[in-house]
């Protein structure tokens, strides 16, 4: 167990701390990207609309952190063959996968803090509500991480990474109602939007802050289901790669 924890911390250090120290633009890039959405939301929607920008910014940052993990794992697999070294070693694969994910979330923590402070300032939510929102974000992170791990194992060339990430960004971060209130959509479109996992998280966070409606309860149930599914997917990916050792 001690070796497994060491492996996890080692991957966290490589993907998080070292990258952040070497790339001074990583933190500003992660923070400024969702802030640009808030800027336009403020221009067209006024001060009241910023609360949706803050909620959407939190989800957007989580999505981006999992995209970093997808890029890293695909690169380790296709470029420097680091994953092959992991497979050939006694290192537990779940520690390798989770370590990469945690490493990629390290340098978005300050950005998460900025948007959480902004959300607290605008909505005056309680500490308990803040903790619930963090739990929802973690559930979303686990599921998206599992999907990104699965996609990364299918990528054969590095040049295939960026178009996949661009497509996922639009599907998960732009079209779903995370930067704007879902209540402006007809009910059938509100339900259709739940096809994107980020939507269920947005509905749940909205319910935590403003009270649960039918649609936000549905979002909460789906978010929990996605969290459990994410754990199962990570387990099977680890098992599938583990079979390569044999």
From TrEMBL:
Residues 35-208 form the ABC-2 type transporter transmembrane domain. Its main location: membrane. The keyword Lipid metabolism does not apply. This is ABC transporter permease. The chain crosses the membrane at residues 25-44, 50-70, 91-122, 128-152, 164-185, 205-237. One of its GO terms (molecular function) is ABC-type transporter activity. Keywords: Membrane, Transmembrane, Transmembrane helix. One of its GO terms (cellular component) is membrane. InterPro entries: ABC2_TM (IPR013525), Nod_factor_ABC_transporter (IPR051784). It is found in: Membrane. The keyword Transmembrane helix applies. It is a multi-pass membrane protein.
């Amino acid at each position: 167990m001690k070796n497994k924890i060491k492996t996890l911390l080692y991957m966290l250090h490589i993907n998080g701390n070292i990258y952040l120290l070497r790339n001074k633009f990583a933190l500003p890039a992660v923070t400024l990207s969702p802030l640009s959405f808030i800027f336009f939301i403020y221009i067209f929607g006024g001060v009241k609309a910023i609360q949706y920008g803050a909620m959407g910014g939190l989800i957007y940052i989580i999505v981006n952190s999992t995209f970093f993990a997808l890029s890293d794992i695909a690169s380790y697999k296709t470029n420097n063959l680091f994953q092959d070294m992991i497979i050939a070693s006694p290192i537990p694969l779940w520690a390798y996968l989770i370590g990469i994910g945690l490493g990629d979330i390290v340098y978005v923590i300050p950005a998460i803090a900025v948007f959480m402070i902004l959300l607290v300032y605008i909505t005056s939510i309680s500490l308990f509500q803040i903790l619930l929102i963090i739990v929802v974000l973690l559930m979303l992170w686990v599921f998206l991480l599992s999907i990104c791990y699965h996609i990364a194992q299918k990528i054969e060339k590095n040049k295939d990474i960026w178009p996949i990430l661009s497509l996922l960004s639009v599907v998960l971060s732009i079209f779903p109602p995370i930067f704007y209130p879902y209540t402006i959509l007809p009910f059938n479109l509100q339900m259709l939007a739940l096809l994107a996992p980020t939507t269920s998280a947005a509905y749940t966070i909205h319910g935590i802050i403003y009270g649960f409606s039918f649609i936000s309860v549905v979002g909460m149930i789906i978010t929990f289901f996605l969290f459990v599914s994410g754990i199962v997917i990570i387990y099977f990916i680890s098992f599938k790669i583990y079979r390569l050792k044999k």
